[in-house]
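Re-run with default settings, no changes from the original entry. Doing this only to confirm the output is reproducible before filing.
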Amino acid sequence: MQQDILLELLISRVERSGMRFSVILSVGGTIVEGDVVSEREYFEEVASLIKSVNPDTQETFASVPDLMDHVAMRGLDEGRNPEIIREFRENVANSYVHLKNSVLWVEGEQRNMSGSLWRGKLDAVDGFWLGRTD
């Protein structure tokens, strides 16, 4: 499936600048809404949510973006083309939509998930609306 270029550009902007926007997504017939956040913020929030369960796991989740950055830097150290490495890292971050304060719609009824986080593949999004239903 081909990604929507406008949504892809908006996600890329969030990743580069940290800006946020609210969105309603249609994903395989399911409606999900929330605030789009960066990959880094998403994983920091995941780590925060699980900190009480296991501190080691918290560090692992919080460091996922750093691990991806490390893989990219290792590629540069190995003499790979910097432009290809930059595109690789950007593509990893931009291939997912990360939502904070997500709400799921099931059979026309809103299911508030108490500030939940949601992560989905960008190429699985069938359509979107900017804004929220509130």
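Residues 5-130 form one domain. Strands lie at 21-27, 30-36, 96-106, 109-121, 125-130.
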